[in-house]
Design brief:
6 helices; Glucose Oxidase, domain 1; 12 strands; 27% strand; ten-stranded mixed beta sheet; metal ion binding; RraA/RraA-like_sf; two-stranded antiparallel sheet; 32% helix; RraA/RraA-like; alpha/beta
């Protein structure tokens, strides 16, 4: 059995793997209907799970303070899919805390401001209806999130780009890494071979 790659090295390796490459081989781990705020954004990192179950999201501040640098905050905000729990101020705080990025299973707001910030943000939708400091703030950290027939846990590996999001168990990410790398290389060689015989400018702007 090959030695398991350290999490930090696994993160670095998957920065060179497209989600569509993973989708050539795997179904399990795909997160449907979640996309980045802009196509240029890419996100790879270890997940920290959070579930929000109230209109009041103020406890997300404590979550941010407890996160480790380079983690990806995965917020399950499906309690209210119309209400945005994330915006500009929380993104600024997340950058200050050193997060790699944020993925919201739900809505975000302040879209224009988020596009100007350096933090990758992935979400299901955009909404002008937001959370409010009314009632208790019900936030759980490091809990299992049931999603598309699999359970996401803190420490899982998240890979996100313009085509969507995959979340893999570290052992799965390790076991498939070489196959993904081979697929990436094969696609590159195939494209390079084609454009040795064709004018690239006729196909790309």
């Amino acid at each position: 059995m090959s030695q398991v790659i350290q999490p930090e090295l696994l993160v670095e390796a998957y920065k060179k793997i497209a989600t569509s490459t993973i989708g050539h081989l795997l179904d399990l781990g795909h997160v449907p209907q979640i996309f980045p705020m802009s196509p240029e954004q890419q996100l790879v990192g270890l997940v920290r799970t959070v579930r929000l179950q109230s209109k009041n999201a103020s406890q997300l501040r404590q979550v941010l303070l407890s996160c480790q640098p380079n983690e990806v905050l995965l917020i399950d905000a499906r309690y209210d899919l119309q209400r945005a729990c994330w915006g500009e101020q929380r993104s600024v705080a997340a950058i200050h805390c050193g997060l790699a990025g944020v993925v919201v299973l739900g809505a975000i707001t302040d879209r224009q401001a988020l596009l100007r910030l350096k933090l990758p943000i992935f979400a299901q939708s955009v909404s002008c209806l937001t959370t409010r400091n009314e009632g208790d703030s019900l936030v759980e950290m490091d809990i299992g999130i049931e999603l598309n027939q699999f359970t996401v846990q803190s420490g899982d590996l998240l890979i996100g780009d313009a085509d969507g999001v995959f979340i893999l168990k570290p052992e799965t990410a390790h076991d498939y890494l070489e196959q993904f790398q081979q697929l990436e290389q094969a696609e590159k060689l195939k494209k390079d071979h084609f454009f040795k015989q064709q004018c690239r400018d006729e196909y790309y702007f």
